[in-house]
Amino acid sequence: MTIKQLSISLENTPGKLSYISEILGKEGVNIRAISVADTSDISTVRFVVDDPKRAINILKSNNFSIKETDVLAVETPDHPGGLNAVLKPIKAAGINVHYLYPFLGRSSDQAIVILGADNIEETDRILKENWVHTLGKEVYNL
Fold first, then answer.
1. What would the mean pLDDT of 73-89 be, rounded to a whole number?
2. How many CB atoms lie under 10 A from the CB of residue 60?
3. pTM score, two decimals?
4. Which of 58, 78, 123, 130 is the most buried (most CB within 10 A)?
5. What are the residue ranges of CATH 3.30.2130.10 in the chain?
């Protein structure tokens, strides 16, 4: 099952990322996973929060343009080579993984990653066929 990822572009200057954390935190929105990719001028921040609709409203009211994307939260075996349990069936299906980043919590003894890929619904189906557990909306509250 897919979950919502939010993405924003930030000027690559001191304090911008802190500001995002501050305005979301003041309103009670918890960042559950985050990835920051920078260039010399702009950073792309991808994140999963516990209340996506509320976060969108907060960010829009602070003049941020938000992109909402479906992604997967996937339990990954937490041992050397464990990530390949997730990546190998995706590779075999010819699906491209665009990015992945860690989730800031656990639902069990497994690590959790956020995964963005071509055809996310097909990716979810393939992972489930291969006994890889994808988490749904419960990931927002873990």
1. 92
2. 11
3. 0.90
4. 123
5. 3-69
